[in-house]
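User: Okay, second chain of the day. Same drill as before: sequence in, structure tokens out.
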Amino acid sequence: MTEQFSVPVTVRGYETDVQGHLNQAVYLNYAEHARWALLQAAGISQKGLASKGVGPVSLETTIRYKRELLAGDEVEVTCAFEWGGGKTFRVEQIIRRTDGTVAAEITAVGGVLNLEERKLVARPDEIFKELSSDPSLFGL
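Assistant: Same drill. Structure tokens below.
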């Protein structure tokens, strides 16, 4: 089994709310940051996607908040793709403090949009394989 992809993030003071916790919307930013970092690590760029006439889209996102995060907390944001063979895929993510405490679990359903037709492509895994220099980062 390969090691799960992750990126480090430090919670910044301006990302917190009046109670001092990380604002709930920022969890989505951290998750999106990790997904794009994974694409980049696998050799997929926004330019490459656009040249193919496709783009990734989020269809559904669920966040389970487990523990609060405060300014200065160091976290890692993991990212793992799960393929079902259809038009969509799942992305499972964990935001974890460096001491191992899970702060949030994020599950997203995504797809790849044909930018001309404005419809999901039939096999997003095939697009990722074609454009990626390292499809193993996506579990492919």
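The radius of gyration is 16 Å.

User: Thanks, on to the next one.
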